[in-house]
Amino acid sequence: MLIGIDLGTTNSLVACYRDGKPQIIVNRLGKKITPSIVSIDENDHVLVGETAKEYGILHPDRTAAVFKRAMGTSKKFDLAEHSFSAEELSSFVLRSLKEDAEEYLKEKVDEAIISVPAYFNDKQRKATIRAGELAGLKVSRIINEPTASAIAYGVGEKGKSERCLVFDLGGGTFDVTVLEYYRNIMEVYAIAGDNFLGGEDFTQILFEMFMKRTGLDQEVIGFRDLKYILKAAELCKCSFSESDVGVMNVTVGKKKYTESFQLSEYELCCRELLEKLRKPIEKALNDARISLDDLDEILLTGGGTRLTMVKDYVRRICGLEPVSIPDPEETVAIGAALQCAMKERSAQIEEVILTDVCPFTLGTEVIRDNGSFEIPGVYLPIIERNTVIPVSRKQTVYTAKDDQRYVTVKILQGESRIAANNLFLGDLTVEVPPGPKGKEAIEVTYTYDIDALLEAEVKVVSTGVSKKVVIHDEEHEESENEKLSRMKRLEYLKFNPREDEENMLVMLRADRVYEESLSQERKEIEELVEAMQNALDEKNILMIEVSKKKLTELLDEIETGNSDQYVA
Ligand code: AMP
Question: Which domains does the chain have, with CATH numbers?
Fold first, then answer.
């Protein structure tokens, strides 16, 4: 069975295509959204999602979040005595979603279409595929998030040709896609964006405003208090959708801080951040050779676009009323599920032919000889950014020295004129026959497939020897043996049993609320926790349900009564 997965920075969702329509699959807690958070508890059990989020408040040293930002890098996240890469942590999230889908569909799930930010580079895409493999999923397709949103929204369903800009501001990434939909063909013209800009940066501004107002020192207060403040900042930010005044209520140490902020004051502090949204819009339109006047529609998606100032800003700079895609949290997963149906050529769904583009220029490093002197370290683009994929392009390079025996072709990605400033993806070395400088010609061919994954080929023209080499990601490429041993290492970590998850979540929440409360409330929590623990020890299902209900009601009451700073 094939499923569609939105592997988000903050939250992840899984969907499938069944009974003639795409459907979001609910997780083990009955929720559509699974936070992209992973913890390893004291029993070496892997916790994912809501449970990990709750666990993480009291055990930050055993919890990781926003790891998608480190996809494709060698950054390690330490969770107690364990250390994981972003792709390994993502594989836990994927495994959890896969299990939820299997439970929901009552069949085995072994294949997935996973969405990635359009602006993800080759390394980040490959890391996503590896994360899928580690989770036991064959990743049959990688789909760009804005493209998935556009499919889900049904761009062009009115039958006319439409030029559309998809503005996607997620938790940690920002993507702009310019596309045209005409007669079942969705043609992506250009993508641009920023992998390090998202809703979290707007939260950070409120956090800084709060710290400044209260005079609290980030260096002095503990990690847990910092998390509380960030959480309160996020809630305050989200409340601006409904009100012109936002309140942050946080207890740090024993002191309670209540600060209210005017929306106008917040907007002023976000001015610089808003300005950062302009460049990718201009770049995408420029690359697509489309002017603002030619646009028929601007679609807003991603949680960050719920901020009215973001919508106002887009309207102001584009001069067109943007349309917010309904349920922006769900559209990417729905789009991925529709893509699943298209892949399986479902009879109910008309296939949308997708043409996509590569987000970055791919090239190599050369020495430029201008006749009188040589300039080393020059970037030679081979496939320009925003070229329609799949694509294959060739460039010929020559030997640089007399009797040179080897030529090393560096595979680079980026836009800088100086080769060293671009991202190094790998290199290939080929043997050439000796001879005078410039005699031997070497053809370098780059092929970018539909998932925006790259292959390179080098051909020595004189010998006719064509050596096809698949670029490997040196840092991360693994042999089959390495892959197996990594899977074994991760398998050792058992997932928390599904059926326990709900109970565990309530108990974790009780632990946290206990820490935040005082006197009478603590007593009440303690009593109910003990009752629930008894019921759990005795495996008394009826009593578990009764005590869980009572405890949840008490926690709800305390949390809404105390302050609104936490959501369960
Ligand atoms: P996504 O990755 O698309 O789920 O977006 C997550 C981001 O959207 C986070 O930074 C959230 O804080 C932000 N977000 C969600 N709801 C709102 C809201 N009502 N107002 C402002 N930002 C929001």
Answer: 2-197+277-357 (3.30.420.40), 199-272 (3.90.640.10), 362-471 (2.60.34.10), 499-567 (no CATH)
